[in-house]
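Why do we bother with holo predictions? Because pocket geometry can differ from the apo form. Keep that in mind while you read this record for 5-amino-5-deoxy-1-O-phosphono-D-mannitol.
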Amino acid sequence: DLIVGARRGSPLAVGYGPNENYLGSDSYALKSMTNKITYLEDNEFCIIKKDEVEFYDAEGKKVNKKILELSKDDQNYDKGDYKHFMAKEIDEQPTTIKNCVNEYIDKVNNTINIFNFPWKRDDINSILLIGCGTAYHSCLMAKYWLEQFTSVDVNVDIASEFRYRKNRFKKDCLYIFISQSGETADTYAALDLCKKNNVKTCSIVNVVESSIARDSDLVLPIYCGPEIGVASTKAYLGMLVAQLVLAKHWDKENKLNITFEDIKSIPNLVKESLKCENEILKIAKGISKKNDIYFIGRGLDYALAAEGALKLKEISYLHAEALAAGELKHGTLALIEDGTPVIVTASQVHLLDKTTSNVQEVKARGAFVIAVGDKNSHKLEKIADQFIRLPSAHEILSTIISIIPLQFIAYHVAKLNGESIDQPRNLAKSVTVE
Ligand code: M6R
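The structure, written out:
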C-alpha cells in the first residue's frame, strides 16, 4: 500500500479515487478512473497510499497542492460502434471543429474571441511556430497564412532541433508551441528554454491541464475532446483552425481575404468531405500491397503532403514520402516506375498548372496517380488515374479539408493489412521521453 513518485523532466500526475489513488504520466492515463488530478512540479515527490497522498519538495519539505477537477467527457473514451478510435475520431471532426469555431468566433458580432492576448501586436515582429510530428505539420501550413496575411516574419521549427541549437532569443518574437497532448518532452523542453530566456510564449494545445499549457503565457485550446488513436486526426484539424483564427485575429488590414462566413462553413465542409470514404476503399485496395508511396504538392499542399505521408507510414508501416512537387526532378523522380502510387493534392489555383505538369512528369514514368481536387481541377482530373472530388471552397479551406481523404487512405490501408491501427508498433500517444 505504498507508491512513491518523483518528477524530473517528464510529467507526473496523481489521481484520486474512492479508497484508492493513482500515479500516471498525464491526465489521459488516469481519466478513465478519475477526474481529480494533481500535477507534480519538477523535483517534487509524492507518497501515495490508498487513502492519503502527501507531496514534498526537493528538500523534503511538505507542500500543499491543489486538486484539479477535469471535465468528464466519458463518452469519448468509448469506441461506440466503431472498430477503432481512429475511425471514430475521423468521423467526429465536423463536431470537434464546430466546437472549436464556436469557441473562437462570436457569431453575432463576427469578431474573434481571443480576449486575453497579453501583448500589443506592435510589440511582436516575428513568430516562431514549434512542434513535433503532426503538430509540426500544422505549423508548416499555418506559416503560409500568418506570413502572407500579417506583417510579421514567421518561421517553423521542429522542437527537438530548436532545443539543441544555439538560438538567438528575441524579445519581439512570439514563440508558439503546438501540441495535442501538451506533454511532448521535446516541445516542453523548447518551451522551458524560452521561459528561461524571458521571451513571449503561447501554446495551442488540446489538453488544457497539460504542462505546456500551464507553463505558457497564453493558451489557445483546440477544443477537440480526448484523442485516443495514436495517429492524430481531429487534433490536426483543430490545430489548423486555431492557427487560422490567430492569423485572422492578427490580420487587421483584412489581407486574409477569408470571411467569418468562410470560417463558420468549415464544419460543414468537413462533413461533406467525409463522404469520400467509399471511393477511398477502392483506392486503399490498390495501394495496400505497394512498398513505396509518394505524396506531392506545392505551397500549402506540400505541408499537407507531409501530414498525409506521416499518417500512412505510422499506421500502415508502408514507406511513404512527401515532396514539394517541384523537387521531384532533383532526385526522387528516379524512384518512380511502373505502378508507383503518387498521391497529389492541388488546392491553390495559382499553382494548379505547375502541379499538373509535375503530375505529367510522374505519369510519363508510369506512376499511378491519385489526385484530390474539386470541380475546378479539370486538368488534374483528366490526367489522374483516380480522382477524389471534394466540395469547392476558398483555397485555404480546400487545403484544410483535403486531409480527410488522406486520413481515410491511411486508415483503410492499415485496416486491409490487418495492422494495429490505434496502437501502432514502437509509438506512443504522448511522447513524454526524449
Ligand atoms: O501531443 P503532440 O501533438 O505534441 O504530439 C506530437 C507528435 O508526437 C504527434 O503528432 C505524432 O506525430 C502523431 N502520432 C502523428 O499522428
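The pocket of 5-amino-5-deoxy-1-O-phosphono-D-mannitol is lined by residues 132-135, 179-181, 184, 187, 230-232, 310, 314, 430-431 (CB under 6 Å).
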